[in-house]
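Fold sample X.
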Amino acid sequence: MPPRENGHEEPVIRDNRKIDPETGQVRDAPAAEQEAPAEAPEAQNGELAAQLAERTADLQRLQAEYTNYRRRVERDRVVVREQAVAGALTELLPVLDDIGRAREHGELTGGFAKVAEALEAALTKLGLSPFGQKGDPFDPTVHEALMHSYSTEVTEPTAIEVLQLGYRMGDRVLRPARVAVAEPEDAPPASDDDDN
């Protein structure tokens, strides 16, 4: 480029139009284009197919990641909800114990009885259910033995008295039932000599 008076080069303008605007005739291809061999259409198609396959695989991978993410978020949301409900229900268990004691002593009457029934119904809707009955076989996963004795009336370790009801929410034990346990009398008593 020839330098201008102020030291800067003049811009170069190239006319790459395929039709000459003055004559309307098709121009010959520039020399650089004539020398470069054109790629075969098969090679271009193969390249495009490879790029398409790569992009499709990327898209499928992203879709799978997003689906897994949505499932994890939904599962976590359910777990967090269950934990929140279980925490609230656990805090209400002493209130239910007081209601149970008042009912046993005949002190739950009138309007308070209706309130207690409404509370118990609402907690049942949330999945709370009491467990622990006199005569249940002792199960250490859901019972807490507070007293132990031997009896000829039982054939296996049995809850002979329920000292405090247990509560569960679905399969989750919120509080074990506190019970007095009796074992069959013919069971050999454990001695301190066995520990040595």
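Fold sample Y, listed below.
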Amino acid sequence: MSMRRLLFTLPLFALAALAVVFALGLSPNRDPHAIDSPLVGKPVAGFVAPALVNGESGVAAGDLRTDAYRGQVVAINFFASWCLPCRAEHPLLKKLAIKAGLPVLGLAWKDKKKASQDFLDELGNPYFQVGSDENGRIGITSFGITGVPETFILDKEGIIRARIPGPLSDDLIETQLLPLIKDLQK
């Protein structure tokens, strides 16, 4: 008789546990953008991205290399021409570079070079240097990105100090990024 009771109550407990998991996942207080990155606090994996823009009007020439910016705090922004939020954040990238006094590097993610170049020609180029990640490998293996836009702040040793999924905003730049960057630049 007790075995029968156990067989009857076991699925009820499993159903109750599943209901709790779903309730927590659907909580209105849950931020879907708050996906912790296991790479924050770790050195960025080495990469070389073929140049998208070569030395035009203040843009650094040559391939975008991980080790080229050691000794500087940098922001790396993944974007794509097909990404609508990338268009919205585009003017804020220049603002970030100026206000924080750091190079903002761009990586065109899973995008054709011509489409990326047309995107930058249309909206202007806010990047100090731009590389192409057409197959998406750099974004996934070196940064673990989940989509675009996504921005990373690297310290002077090349360690990822922040990951910002989604588009930047004025408030985010002022309240979170500028204080972090100023601290890292000391």
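Sample Y note: The beta strands are 48-49, 64-65, 74-79, 104-109, 129-133, 150-154, 160-165.
Also: The domain at 48-185 is CATH 3.40.30.10 (Glutaredoxin).
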